Here is the input.
Amino acid sequence: MAERYDVVVVGSGVGGMCAAALAVKKGYKTLVLESLDRVGGRYSTVEIDGYKCLTGACVIHYSGWVPWVFKEVGAPLELRDASEVYYNIKGQEFKVPLQNRVTALFDICNRLGGGEGKSKNIMGGMVKEVASKKLSGFFGKAVMDPKQTGGLTLREWLLQYTDNPVAHALFDSLSIGWVVAHSYEIPASEYFYFMSVMKGMNDIGLAPKGNKYNMEQLVKVVKSNGDVWLASPVTKILVSKGVVTGVVVRKEGGAEEEIACKAVISNVGPRKTVELSGEENYPEEYLRDMRVKLRPVPVTLVHVASEKPLVMPGGEHGMELVAGMRRVTAAVPLTNTCPELAPKGMHLIHYACSPPSTLVAMDPEEEIRMINKDLRDLHPDFDRYAKIISIEPKNIDDDLNEGRSWQAAPYQMPRETPVKNLWNVGDGVQSRGYTGTSGCAEGAKNVVEQLKKAVKPG
Ligand SMILES: Cc1cc2nc3c(=O)[nH]c(=O)nc-3n(C[C@H](O)[C@H](O)[C@H](O)COP(=O)(O)OP(=O)(O)OC[C@H]3O[C@@H](n4cnc5c(N)ncnc54)[C@H](O)[C@@H]3O)c2cc1C
Here is the structure.
């Protein structure tokens, strides 16, 4: 069968679209196949009652790899700065400066007290200074070696300096808010490494026209030498003698079509890639690694519509990390920065919520109950002004859950597969220290570099 495309990309998430646009720019005729009727996967937009809601990712890291890819392929990326960070502790809001965040954290803890006796404050100025210097040092440099942090979790590491409960709630919210792992789950070395790679998450932006709009700019790039087919699930990745040869796609109406190509880039996660291409093409070692290493994370995505600003009511541009609640870990007042996302005069707030353990499946009904309580505790007049317009628990076995991307190298699958000219991109195959959309874009860049070495366009 003649090859109509050099490359087929399965899935149009950030990883898939970045890889497709970069491949097109390198001269590869590329086809993107997406099972849904919209582009972007977990970086996209769904409209509910006139509100432009997120399908997953909220903020993009300016100095991360997504802006790099857009620039590289000549696509406009619409972002508005939302870099201010606040903490919400016990209903009180505190602004956190971009510089010296750690010292500011300890100052907040001392002001709030929060413990008994010794742990009431951070044990005096001397210890506070030592602790904040040490922590700032660890935040500032890439601490890759668990030996440097004694192999401790972030919580254990902090316990060396303070047992103040407010300090621990704050560090847990910093950890779950940025890396979707609790401070008692993540090794301190991984957390500090992540914060240094992501440059402290100091520069983030929101999409004023919605995330889908940004992804559609990559669609335009792909269409300059290829196609993007929506509502077109791939049912098989074809492999012959250990080499990828094409895909089978189910088109609207149910008919299946075989499409031959030289390379396939899969954006559906390593597990689904194996399902589509057939276990028989993988050595047992690869399959065992996949069973052990791939650990998706449960999260719940909430959108609230409100008549008045509930979060950062001064109209500040940024996000609030929420400490000490049952489930809510972060709140982003989207319309403070992008009023276009809601009907005129209304406010749209995105809340990220996590269960007490991110390692096992959650009970969605319990999550919804707890989130409802949190929202009323955070905003006592919630029912007068606001309503939940969407609440979506994404469990560990759901199709589009959050990837466990903070895991150290032993817990990442490689982007290369044992099948020649078949690569994975997206969550689950990110480079160490990266997470979210930035990690997906960085992985796409790496895969297209490998593609260039393995396959000639045309
Ligand atoms: C609640 C939540 C909040 C988040 N917040 C942030 C944030 O603020 N910042 C950040 O950077 N990251 C954030 N993330 C993470 C970020 O959303 C993901 O890392 C990223 O979007 C994942 O992209 P991906 O490349 O893995 O593709 P995905 O988004 O997983 O897309 C895969 C695509 O493949 C399609 N597909 C599946 N099967 C098939 C098939 N058989 N045939 C064709 N197509 C198929 C799917 O429909 C989907 O469109 C968040 C995630 C969640 C869930």
Notes: The mean pLDDT is 88. Residues 10-16, 33-36, 41-43, 56-59, 233-234, 267-268, 272, 299, 301, 352, 394, 400, 402-403, 426-427, 436-438, 440 surround flavin-adenine dinucleotide (CB under 6 Å). The domain at 7-80+209-294+403-454 is CATH 3.50.50.60 (FAD/NAD(P)-binding domain).
